[in-house]
Amino acid sequence: MLQISPSILSADFANLESELARISTADWAHVDVMDGHFVPNLTLGLPVVEAIKAVSPIPLDCHLMIEDPDRWAPQYAEAGGSSVTFHVEAATDPVATARSIRAAGARAAFAVKPGTPFTPYADLLPEVDMVLVMTVEPGFGGQSFMADQMAKVREVREAVSRHGGEIWVQVDGGVSQDTIGQCVEAGADVFVAGSAVYGADDVPSRISELRDLAAACAGH
Ligand SMILES: O=C(CO)[C@H](O)[C@H](O)COP(=O)(O)O
Ligand SMILES: [Fe+2]
């Protein structure tokens, strides 16, 4: 199944309830948590996740770009994240972190930055429900898509296929009408798009357009 996860990083932060209503036809609301340390940007934390969980029409896909995810990740699951993704570059014990997310009732995922290879983390697959391959350097929305990450997406898809089970492959950063096709061809099945969705005049139409383009590339 191909899924669209619009990033609220590009939404109007003064009106998050109505901004979430605009993406109600998407599969997930992607919530970028940045701490000003792991990345040079600061966004939102647990109280905001709790508040938007109460009003969101769709489940929250929390992408933690923070230090010490071992400590914080399960709290994002408890606060309402239905999926919680931590960065392997920040985790001290990724196995324990993934297990604590699942124990709190959420889907667990790990993310790799563009400069981080996947292979050393392939052993984590039994512990997670999704792998996020970053297609920009994490920290900011509206950056250019890094096509050179498609080799890594292929590698993750092959490892996931060999492993079996239902592990999703997510791409995040610069995903748009122009770039979603190559993500599908490389094997991604969950697409985060911030500026491409919230920058559109008609947000629901843009979500359908991205879905249709992805399905067409997948040959559906
Ligand atoms: O994790 C992120 C940045 O670190 C965002 O999810 C991502 O950048 C989405 O924004 P855009 O689609 O505009 O690139
Ligand atoms: Fe993100």
TrEMBL record:
SUPFAM superfamilies: Ribulose-phoshate binding barrel (SSF51366). It comes from the Bacteria. PANTHER family: RIBULOSE-5-PHOSPHATE-3-EPIMERASE (PTHR11749). The gene is rpe. GO terms for molecular function: D-ribulose-phosphate 3-epimerase activity; oxidoreductase activity. Belongs to the ribulose-phosphate 3-epimerase family. Keywords: Carbohydrate metabolism, Isomerase, Metal-binding, Oxidoreductase. Its EC number is 5.1.3.1. This is Ribulose-phosphate 3-epimerase. Substrate binds at residues 7, 63, 139-142, 172-174, 194-195. Catalyzes the reversible epimerization of D-ribulose 5-phosphate to D-xylulose 5-phosphate. Pathway: Carbohydrate degradation. The active site is at residues 32, 172. It is an enzyme of class 5 (isomerase). Its cofactor is Mn(2+); a divalent metal cation; Zn(2+); Fe(2+). A divalent metal cation binds at residues 30, 32, 63, 172. It catalyses: D-ribulose 5-phosphate = D-xylulose 5-phosphate. Binds 1 divalent metal cation per subunit. The keyword Oxidoreductase applies.
